[in-house]
Amino acid sequence: GENVEQHPSTLSVQEGDSAVIKCTYSDSASNYFPWYKQELGKRPQLIIDIRSNVGEKKDQRIAVTLNKTAKHFSLHITETQPEDSAVYFCAASDKLVFGAGTILRVKS
Amino acid sequence: EAQVTQNPRYLITVTGKKLTVTCSQNMNHEYMSWYRQDPGLGLRQIYYSMNVEVTDKGDVPEGYKVSRKEKRNFPLILESPSPNQTSLYFCASSSGTVYEQYFGPGTRLTVT
């Protein structure tokens, strides 16, 4: 089955800096890669997703890149703000196997 | 308002006492699933359902049961809870696995 590894487990950045979270997956048949954000005490919510027919997708300050050959995908957040502080989860495949999560702290 | 609801939100119980966590969605979604969230382990799928009367095991189904008698409801049943089932549980629904999952507010379960 699919296995998803996510790094780093925690990430601290200064407000205004960029943050990058990386995930690798094992099943080359996986073709859907969403990212979820979970604020403290709240439910996970989708922030961006990418399908295997594209290499990059952008939505304002958030972008996701996908390298199918290397089987990894990354979340990029530019100009980070305190409200970006949360836990971020990647997932892969149609069975939605999630990574272990990254705690992002944006220091103001 | 489109939403997924779960009840109860918090539950403290004792080992062996059967319990049910309800989940309901009003978006006419065919796909529903249950996850448990534990520190450092992310979201692990317990069971999922592709449609009414169609359910299947996820990655960590041991000790859990589900049923899908109606499209909108997908209850999670713990027949004999044990302390290792202490966790935060999320129900989710969507149009399918490769679409946005809408999560419920979560149920924090403690088994003593």
Question: How many strands in all of chain B?
Answer: 11
Helix fraction of chain A, binned, reads under 10%
Instruction: Tell me the Rg of chain B in angstroms.
Output: 13 Å
Biggest pleated sheet of chain B: 7 strands, mixed
- The share of residues in extended strands of chain B comes to over 45%
Low-confidence stretches of chain A: none
Q: Largest interface, with Cβ-Cβ < 8 Å?
A: A-B, 24 and 19 residues
Mean of pLDDT of chain A? 95
SSE order of chain A, one letter for each helix or strand: EEEEEEEEEEE
Bulk shape of chain A: globular
Rg over alpha carbons of chain A: 13 Å
Count of DSSP E strands of chain A?
11
Poorly predicted runs of chain B: none
Give the overall shape of chain B, derived from the CA principal axes. Answer: globular
Short description, anyone?
The complex is a heterodimer of chains A (108) and B (112). Chain A is mainly β and 108 residues long. Chain A contains no helices and eleven strands.
Structure, explained:
- The complex is a heterodimer of chains A (108) and B (112).
- With 108 residues, chain A is mainly beta.
- Chain A has strands at residues 4-7, 10-14, 19-25, 32-38, 45-51, 56-59, 62-67, 72-77, 86-92, 97-98, 102-107.
- In chain A, strands 2, 4, 5, 9, 10 and 11 form a six-stranded mixed β-sheet that branches. In chain A, strands 1-3-8-7-6 form a five-stranded antiparallel β-sheet, with no helix packed on it.
- The model of chain A has no long low-confidence stretch (mean pLDDT 95).
- Helix content of chain A is 0%, strand content 56%.
- By secondary structure, chain B is mainly beta.
- Chain B has strands spanning 4-7, 10-13, 19-25, 31-38, 42-51, 54-57, 65-66, 76-78, 87-94, 102-103, 107-111.
- In chain B, strands 2, 4, 5, 6, 9, 10 and 11 form a seven-stranded mixed β-sheet that branches. Chain B has a four-stranded antiparallel β-sheet with strand order 1-3-8-7, with no helix packed on it.
- Chain B is globular, with a radius of gyration of 13 Å.
- Classes of the chains: A mainly beta (108), B mainly beta (112).
- At the A-B interface, β4, β5 and β10 of A face β5 of B.
